[in-house]
Records
---
Amino acid sequence: MALPKLEVPTYEIELPLSKKKLKYRPFLVKEQKNLLMAMESGDADTIQQNIRDILSVCTLTEGVDLDELPIIDIEYYFINLRAKSVGEISESKYRCNNTVSETKECGNIMESKINLTEIYPEAEETVDPEVRISDKIVVKMRYPQFGLIRDSINMDNITDVTFNMIANSIEYIYDGEQFHYAKETTKEELIEFIEGMNQQQFEKIEHFFNNIPRLKKKIEIVCSKCGFNHSLEVEGLESFFGL
Ligand SMILES: [Zn+2]
């Protein structure tokens, strides 16, 4: 006799940057097991691939290309998926680095609980994605997409990664008369365009990237051993999962 099928709840999320609404289900025990194994491996490539796999199977909305969503949206989605699947509270450990005597740090291991549902992307400064690099030329930028991470894994130097990221994050270039859409241009042409910028123009593009919203959270912990009051800012997926 067939065993009963277990019902799985479904949820809806609005992604903060793209404003896309997605229906999803929590991940199941077998999926969590794979994820934990990937996290334990500490290998960025494996972790990234696992996050991609889990999000794919848990997303119920049809026709969603995860690779085209902003990286921060994917991280936000994943954190919320984890909150619904495992629990909203994640425990992390931090080492107290307060100097207690001339040469010695306290070294106490402090625990902190983070409510994953309170994490939301924040930017230092809001930068207009339409970056004017000269009297005539405007470059319209967009937030780096998740697919870029996979592209970048095989590149061995940081310059290639940076230029590839910029090229992938251009939506269009307006020259005062015409719009040149990136999707109708080759990657080589885009890279050549970026390489042709002067220092000031390049800095304006960098300014956009430096102010992309990030997922971070401030936490306050008082060390139980030395009493020092720590104010920490945690950022990035790993720091929210206490690895
Ligand atoms: Zn301490």
---
Amino acid sequence: MTYRAPIADLRFLLEHVVDFGKLRSTELFSDVGEEVTDAILTEAGKLCEEVIAPVNRPGDKTPSTLENGRVRSAPGYAEAYRAIAEGGWVCVSAPADYGGMGLPVTLQTAINDMMSSACLSLQLNPLLTQGQIEALAAHASDEIKALYLPKLISGEWSGTMNLTEPVAGSDVGALTSKAEPNGDGTYAVTGQKIYITWGDADFVDNVCHLVLARLPDGKPGTKGISLFMVPRNLPDADGAPGVANSLKVVSLEHKLGIHGSPTCVMEFDGATGWLIGEEHGGMAAMFTMMNNARLGVGCQGIGIAEAATQKALAYALERKQGKVGGTGAIIEHADVRRMVTTMKAETFAVRAIALANAVAIDMGEATGEEDWKARAALLTPISKAHGTDIGHEMAQLGIQVHGGMGFIEETGAAQFARDVRVTQIYEGTNGIQAMDLVARKMMDGGAAAYALLDEVEAAAEAARETLPDLARPIFNAAENFREATEWLVEQEMEDRFAGCVAYLRAFARVLGAHYHLLAAMAEGGSGPRTGLARFFIKRILPEHEALIAQVREGAVGLYDLSVEDLQAV
Ligand SMILES: Cc1cc2nc3c(=O)[nH]c(=O)nc-3n(C[C@H](O)[C@H](O)[C@H](O)COP(=O)(O)OP(=O)(O)OC[C@H]3O[C@@H](n4cnc5c(N)ncnc54)[C@H](O)[C@@H]3O)c2cc1C
């Protein structure tokens, strides 16, 4: 079974569920009409199906290697990457002033979803470049922008993100890498970074590392960190890659999955770097990159959920076991039907959340309105954490649908499960995302959350006459969740954090049901989308009640078992 880009689904979601058309009423995106959207989705889909998906298995079986300090990429990756770069697909949302297409992040999000289904390991390369483009566009000097952006946008050079160190994982502020001024406007960057994705690549002319390090007068913690551009090869007077910088890939990690993506231990030994943004303002600059990457990583989960669903459905239609009517295949068994329909319903819901997130980013950019920016910020941790949780869960269900064949590598179902697992960990673990949701994203007292719940309830009200069995549970769930939010924002941080993962998932349940309802309404209240909505609302939405009960427990009893008790019981 080969991957088929879900163009019809994406088109339907954009036009009927997440109100992508609203962007066309803004000056910035007035020319992104239906024809442009269709052409972009169709062409990107074709590239994913025909060029990128075929390198997914070879990259899993023959991982990238390190030879004489340089990464040799997996078979077929170089050719597939060249097709991505030559087609202009590295970053379609990059600014037009530097050679980009200036398209909405929403279209980038749809493309990232498809590319992740096709080959997660390779897609990580352009994903990181996208984040770097955004960070440079927002924070770099004009000279750096003029030198680096066109090369990154065209895909001649690629970008990486260097935060993590052995002592600094989730706690980025603990990092020990140093930067000393060279006296000529450049800096000497020294330190070791671990887990650096695509720390080198043999299919680009230069690799541009964005590195977090501390200046001599940098305070301890995140407030004393600065951001530097440290290229593998120093650009010469013409901007071409020149002499090698003082940095190297020390080794590659052996991993559970994404074998095609080289995860590098990097050593910077007085490497020449250029400051990006303000001195000691590195975290603010890096956050631009991380926010972009968080939505992108959420899409990796969605892409894997889609690919796993396609494979499971194809197998369920083919495999015969037991006497059943209809097709005579296992899809007729109640439990297999439950699993496959769950995969469809969950993938639709989480894709809608990510696209709504992207529309909010674009509306914030196009209108400058704070409400849109607040919505984008609120939805980002949900897209990242729930997108990747669902990716993991659907990949596991996909294995189950295959029975024993799911555990055998040839089917590819197991690769999805191995590849997607890390998406719940990198770019800020899903626990850290949930903490962000209940702390920083609730500093408005819940205002952005309430504004979203108002829309959920208004849609449920509008559907009360025509689709009462769907509208009523959603309205009640939104009310329930609103009350939980009112309770949450009154609590101490420890109580919020204790229930934050449950809170994030409950929020995603309510939003998923809402987007399913909008799809059912757009279909006129009967048909397959309405059936899928009913499945989600009746069988998946009720989970929110148990989740809210966990949220309301706060930290009560969480520490009742001492560390000694945990070792004793
Ligand atoms: C394959 C791969 C690729 C990666 N690519 C990159 C990259 O390109 N660039 C880069 O800089 N990094 C990269 N990373 C690093 C990644 O972002 C980190 O692994 C991640 O941020 C978690 O840090 P850690 O591994 O040190 O885990 P830890 O921080 O040690 O976390 C361990 C556990 O403790 C929890 N925890 C930690 N602190 C808290 C807290 N304050 N409150 C509650 N729970 C907490 C975590 O949620 C987690 O469950 C990559 C990692 C992997 C595995």
---
Amino acid sequence: MTILISGGTVVTASGTLDADVLVAGEKIAAVLGRAVTGDADPKAPASPAAVAADRVIDATGKYVLPGGIDVHTHMEMPFGGTSSVDTFETGTRAAAWGGTTTIVDFAVQAKGTSLLATLDKWHAKADGNCAIDYGFHMIVSDVNDTTLKEMDACIAAGVNSFKMFMAYPGVFYATDGEILLAMQQAARSGATVMMHAENGIAIDQLVAQALAAGRTDPVNHGLTRPPELEGEATGRAITLAKVANCPLYIVHLSARQALEAVAEARDTGQNVFAETCPQYLYLSLDDLARPDFEGAKFVASPPLRTKDHLDSLWRGLRTNDLSVVSTDHCPFCFKDQKELGRGDFSKIPNGMPGVEHRMDLLHAGVAAGQLTLPRWVEVASTTPARMFGLYPRKGVIAAGSDADIVIYDPAARQTLSATTHHMNVDYSAYEGLEVTGQVVTTLSRGRPVIDDGAYQGKPGDGAFLPRGLNQYLL
Ligand SMILES: [Zn+2]
């Protein structure tokens, strides 16, 4: 099967190009530059290949992008006695609707279990169920001699990024000593440690004080996790990584103080990288303070910050101190799940839905002048591919790469809403927000997944992606 995507503007991390894209089977066969307007008869076939293609998709007026890569999702993840509500099937389908063609999800080691058994468990959840390709990171929550040895086996199995937590004492929390040991182990192979950087020990004291004083509303989730405690933990993680000589990737960075710590480390040439998420670019503590328990919809950790942090994060994206935008998609329904925390904000499941709208919300940033078009593609696709060892198979429109391609209409208008989204969750964090731009077609390895306004894929189309090492190491 060959497909010619003709007439569109190819957008890559390095610029835009008026070109047609020929897909043969699962791969991109050629990127064919077009004559500049006026040089040739516009009705003539764009290239000889047009004649040979089984199907021609007219992308006139549309962008042709490498498929989005969301390196931070939590499908069907256990948390606080409940589980995030998107399965690998529903979550990857929603991702495809939004122009994301690869996710990297987190396998979660429970204390007392092995990393390899954990990996098997996550394969059992995902294999045969995904609509798009997927990989895994490993959450290490129990550091011991066995676990440390198993990290090498995970790397051999294509999982070479290990997430640790300075937050959530008693659950995922690791001490500084445990973090150092895991970093030293990762460093031997060039693997990356990913860090949830918040000072969970101090936060737990603030949470206890708030509850004792009767401050139980959702806004207190944000007030008890001040940005200084994200900044402090980020700096500490950077120091530990420096001592261990280990590549470090700060996940879901939300606070200016944390960004400053990352920028300072990067200026010295340390292998420190960071991502942020759309919710930290668009939403704020004001949303956590919405009345009638509505704020619970916005409970995630780190919390939404005051509005003065937002501009810093957009700037960080432009200066590359923030290199990636992922979603931390971890949806819990308002009804019955978020409601577990009525009267006690600390019992609200932590997480927000978002896998479907990352590309759109970042394109809204392009429309608002916050990002250039190539930078949009870079932070949403190309850099995630290089950071997590998927490039050039993913993250680029080039001959030989997987034909993960999104045809995007930059002029379409859409209103984000729970009534129209495809995520398996009963609310939208962006209910009623009108944005410019929308996915028209999503191809995953040459197969139309979203096409003609409908989902055309099926569970099991997506394949597991063993990943290589971070390609940005200095
Ligand atoms: Zn997360």
